[in-house]
Amino acid sequence: MKAVPVQAAGQFFERPVAFALRHSFSSLWVHRLPQEQAPPIVIAPDGTIDLQWIDGAFRIAGPDREPQTEMLPAGTMVIGFRFHPAAAANWLGVPACEIAGQRLMLDELWGAGAKRLAGDLAGRQGTASLADALEGLLARRDPPPVPMDHAMRRAFAIIDQGLPPGVPLVPFLGRALAMSERTLRRRFEENFGYGPKTLDRILRYQRFRRLAKAAGSGSTAMLAIEAGYADQAHLVRESRRLTGSTLSEIDRAMRCQAGPGS
Question: Which domain holds residue 53?
Answer without folding.
Answer: 4-139
